[in-house]
Design goal:
Helix content: over 70%
Number of domains: 1
Number of helices: 8
CATH superfamily: Tetracycline Repressor, domain 2
Number of strands: 0
Shape: elongated
Largest sheet: none
CATH architecture: Orthogonal Bundle
Mean pLDDT: 87
Low-confidence stretches: 1-5
CATH class: Mainly Alpha
Structural class: mainly alpha
Amino acid sequence: MPNAETDVTALAPRPQRADARRNYEKLVSAAREAFAEDGTSASLEDIARRAQVGIGTLYRHFPTRQHLLEAVYLDEVEAICRSAADLADLEPWDALVTWLRQFVGFAATKRALAQEMLGTIGSDAEVFRTCRVAISSAGDELLGRAQAAGAVRADASFIDIARLLGGIASIDSDPEQIERILDIVIDGLRYQAPSA
């Protein structure tokens, strides 16, 4: 259950009316696709067209490009945090590994978006602080569960793992090499009994 400190939904309040909420969600989805294809400088007119709404509707929901960038970023953070909770039925090790693999994909696809936002609002902005806390909370919970089950070394912290995964996500290489490097990191997390 998110608390006030980890609830990223509080940063991007969604419209209450059903039609406005649908338009909001269509715009965020269209922006995500456009940013993935054309980068963060994708045309706002193209985003409105993809969402099948007028440009005025886009500006009513997102007065500036920065507002739209933040909404897409927050939506992705919400999704990665929600996915951690969705793995609760898996064995602790399997849940952690599944989520870490998802996290690498998340980090790789959000890098350009985060860089664009950093240039405008800086790394200490509330949106980044809240997102870091929410992601850390999700990762800490999965890691703690795996450590309690004796599947992960006790000296691992999520912040260390997140830094490793961020580095892996920034590698400009073929997916097979990235997967191999990720496998090495994941194997390094496994608990190993001390040798006698």
